[in-house]
UniProtKB/TrEMBL annotation:
E.C. numbers: 3.2.2.31
Protein family membership: Belongs to the Nth/MutY family.
Cofactor entry: [4Fe-4S] cluster
The reaction(s) this protein catalyses: Hydrolyzes free adenine bases from 7,8-dihydro-8-oxoguanine:adenine mismatched double-stranded DNA, leaving an apurinic site
GO process terms (BP): base-excision repair; mismatch repair
Species: Inquilinus limosus
Protein name (record): Adenine DNA glycosylase
SMART domains from the UniProt entry: ENDO3c
CDD domains, alphabetized: ENDO3c (cd00056), NUDIX_DNA_Glycosylase_C-MutY (cd03431)
Keyword terms, alphabetized: 4Fe-4S, DNA damage, DNA repair, Glycosidase, Hydrolase, Iron, Iron-sulfur, Metal-binding
Domain of life per record: Bacteria
Summary of the function given for this chain in its UniProt record: Adenine glycosylase active on G-A mispairs. MutY also corrects error-prone DNA synthesis past GO lesions which are due to the oxidatively damaged form of guanine: 7,8-dihydro-8-oxoguanine (8-oxo-dGTP).
């Protein structure tokens, strides 16, 4: 094959069988996949794809098993209180996914009789389902020839075709290649095969080219640039936001928590109350503490709590005080039951910091 290969040179009839044969021997065993020869449950495909957005397979496995144990069907999930779903999601991150997931389950039950639609167009009408997720569900759950392009697929396409245009501008090019290679026979298995290839063989570092079923036509391997692709634009530095967290306890040592507003960062999750999250240096601490919710006897704890969100870094000073009055929407939780409160990771860091310094 010449080094000017295009998608046409990789016709599905010629190359998909090699990949599918490799997949039949080496497919990953994952809790959301049906065993070979068995029909996959669209609910499990959808749930796994939502959980896997910007999250690793290793991090998702236990959450997936917990969710399917609690809510075996989409109707069960739709009937659950959203607060319970958020508690079960705590620690997985990107909490808007959990809220959209619950809304999606409700709409599947109300509008589709508890049966997921099978086309990409219909799936995209549901909350939390974008182009990639719609294609993945259509292909894997309904065996439709949809072009599934997650990060693993993009990496494989960039290397096979030696696409040196950096990401994210290269995304449309890579999706075009992925669509051209998608076969009409076993498209669901093919989609998972490309993802498995990227996850286990065509890895970001030290790709195992000698084991790859597509090593012969791969242009990046021929040119010795496989590990350099896909190229990426330099990321802009992330800003840092700062706040003061208010660790409030009553005479029995119970900790005051409250629920965040349903929209925005960590929407609907339980939190340790804090001041506004600002990018400028923190204002005078005395002024911040004067506006703190229902507390007195404040003392600052040593050190900072740091947490990284997708678009900014977060630094918190923790102030400990006693509850001096009512706080709207607050609940009191014994320290040994904080694990049941469904705290997101950033809030758990505050709790561990406070408990460590107050012991």
């Amino acid at each position: 094959m010449p080094d000017t290969a295009t998608s046409a040179d990789f016709a599905p009839a010629g190359f998909a069988p090699d990949l599918l044969a490799w997949y039949d021997r080496h497919r990953r065993v994952l809790p959301w996949r049906a065993p070979p020869g068995q029909k996959v449950d669209p609910y499990r495909v959808w749930l796994s794809e939502i959980m896997l957005q910007q999250t690793t397979v290793a991090a998702v496995k236990d959450y997936f098993l917990d969710f399917t144990g609690r809510w075996p069907t989409v109707a069960d999930l739709a009937a659950a209180p959203v607060e319970e779903v958020l508690r079960a999601w705590a620690g997985l991150g990107y909490y808007a996914r959990a809220r959209n997931m619950h809304r999606c389950a409700v709409l599947v039950v109300e509008r589709h009789g508890g049966v997921f639609p099978s086309t990409e167009a219909e799936l995209r009408q549901l909350p939390g389902i974008g182009d990639y997720t719609a294609a993945a569900i259509a292909a894997i759950a309904f065996d439709r020839p949809a072009a599934v392009t997650d990060g693993n697929v993009e990496r494989v396409m960039a290397r096979i075709f030696a696409v040196e245009t950096p990401l994210p501008p290269a995304k449309p090019i890579l999706k075009t290649h992925a669509a051209a290679l998608t076969p009409r026979r076993r498209p669901g298995d093919y989609a998972q095969a490309v993802m498995d290839l990227g996850a286990t063989i065509c890895t970001p570092r030290s790709p195992k080219c000698i084991l790859c079923p597509w090593s012969t036509p791969c242009l990046a391997r021929k040119r010795g640039i496989a590990e350099d692709l896909p190229a990426k634009l330099a990321k802009a530095p992330k800003p840092t936001r700062r706040a003061v967290a208010f660790w409030l306890t009553d005479a029995q040592g119970n900790v005051l928590l409250r629920r965040r507003p349903p929209k925005g960062m960590l929407g609907g999750m339980m939190e340790v109350p804090s001041s506004a999250w600002v990018e400028q240096p923190m204002p005078d601490l005395a002024a911040v503490l004067a506006e703190a919710p229902g507390g007195s006897g404040w003392r600052l704890l040593p050190g900072l709590v740091r947490h990284g969100f997708t678009h900014f870094d977060f630094e918190l000073t923790v102030a400990a005080g006693r509850i001096a009055g009512p706080v709207d929407g607050a609940v009191l939780v014994p320290p040994d039951r904080l694990g049941e409160a469904g705290l997101p990771t950033a809030m758990w860091k505050i709790a561990r910091h406070a408990l460590r310094h107050l012991e």
